[in-house]
């Protein structure tokens, strides 16, 4: 395999269009190779006066302070302002540690970006995308899980992912620019699912076929393209309405009916409702129980509930549980 010149990597990011001259950007900087590469490329493409960096110190590892110092030294070298957020683990524990860290990082980035109308850029690469898809294949049913991370969602952008740069590419860029990075050994630890995917599952897939990574990425891209077609089909089935006759829903092919249920549930809940499509049979049964002139309600999870009235299905937010009344021993 012939390696591309480092300059070609920069051109691929430029052509992706997520980093542009004079467009304000907040780069989430961990100090690892991917975020170091992203920051350097962003300074080159956007102009350093339009770039800020954010480092979140979670204080969870013994070398967290060294990571922070490395980021400070890098930003001083690149003449980029650096904001540092020091996070404290919640008193009741962070639950899913990686999800908690991600939420803290994105929230801090959004606050910093809001002040200057900037995008928030992360250093996710094609290598991260492959790991994400393989993990979701095992843990989450459905086509959506296999489309991976979007390269753009709202103010959040992933320029290296759109350009299909790999972890090897970012290391090569940093080496060509004389930039050092920090290694987080927990990334390769089998303590976390991603580490097990990286260290065991993907090597096994590459043994089966040397183009495993490329095939996984291409499959995700094809599914994303096909999703646009399915969206049109769902819109046609709903005909612009936010409800559907239960009889009409029952007459649709089951795959399309599940997509319609998901669309209605997510529109009502204002977020993802992964469990709603699985309740299709229950929803159709709900309609049969309600009859042509009755009504019935079914909580489908994720903050949404199905409501059938006079043979018409709609969704609404699940109302909050009522406050428990005071009682003996309770304030």
Whole-angstrom Rg: 24 Å
Number of DSSP strand runs: 10
Tell me which CATH architecture of the largest domain applies here.
3-Layer(aba) Sandwich
Name of the CATH class of the largest domain: Alpha Beta
Q: Mean pLDDT, rounded to whole units?
A: 90
Look at the helices and sheets and give the structural class. Answer: alpha/beta
Under CATH, the topology of the largest domain can be stated as Rossmann fold
Order of helices and strands: HEHEHEHEHEEHHHHEHHHEEE
Low-confidence stretches: none
* Percentage of residues assigned to helices: 40-55%
Could you state the CATH homologous superfamily of the largest domain?
HUPs
Q: What fraction strand?
A: 5-15%
Tally of individual helices: 12
Rough shape? elongated
* Tally of domains: 2
Termini separation (Å)? Answer: 70 Å
Biggest sheet overview: 6 strands, mixed
Order of strands across the biggest sheet? Answer: 3-2-1-4-6-5
């Amino acid at each position: 395999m012939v390696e591309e010149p480092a300059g070609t990597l920069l051109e691929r990011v430029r052509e992706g269009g997520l980093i542009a001259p004079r467009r304000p950007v907040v780069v989430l900087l961990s100090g690892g190779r991917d975020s170091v590469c992203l920051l350097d490329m962003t300074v080159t493409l956007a102009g350093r006066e339009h770039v800020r960096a954010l480092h979140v110190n979670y204080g969870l590892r013994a070398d967290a302070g060294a990571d922070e110092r490395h980021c400070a030294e890098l930003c001083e070298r690149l003449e980029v302002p650096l904001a540092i957020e020091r996070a404290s683990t919640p008193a009741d524990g962070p639950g899913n540690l990686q999800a908690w860290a991600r939420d803290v990082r994105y929230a801090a980035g959004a606050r910093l970006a809001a002040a200057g109308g900037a995008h928030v850029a992360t250093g996710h690469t094609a290598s991260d995308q492959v790991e994400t898809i393989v993990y979701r294949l095992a843990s989450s049913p459905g086509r959506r899980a296999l489309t991976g991370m979007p390269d753009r969602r709202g103010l959040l952008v992933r320029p290296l992912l759109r350009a299909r740069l790999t972890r090897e590419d970012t290391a090569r860029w940093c080496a060509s620019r004389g930039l050092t990075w920090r290694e987080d050994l927990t990334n390769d630890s089998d303590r976390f699912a991603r580490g097990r995917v990286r260290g065991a599952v993907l090597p096994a897939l590459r043994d089966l076929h040397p183009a495993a990574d490329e095939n996984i990425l291409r499959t995700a891209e094809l599914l994303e393209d096909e999703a646009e077609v399915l969206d049109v089909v769902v819109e046609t089935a709903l005909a612009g309405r936010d409800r559907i006759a239960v009889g009409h829903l029952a007459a649709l092919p089951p795959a399309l009916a599940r997509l319609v249920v998901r669309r209605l549930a997510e529109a009502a809940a204002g977020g993802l409702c992964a469990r709603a499509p699985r309740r299709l049979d229950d929803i159709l049964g709900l309609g049969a129980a309600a009859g042509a002139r009755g009504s019935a309600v079914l909580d489908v999870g994720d903050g949404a509930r199905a409501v059938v009235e006079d043979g018409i299905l709609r969704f609404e937010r699940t109302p909050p549980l009522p406050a428990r009344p005071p009682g003996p021993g309770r304030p």
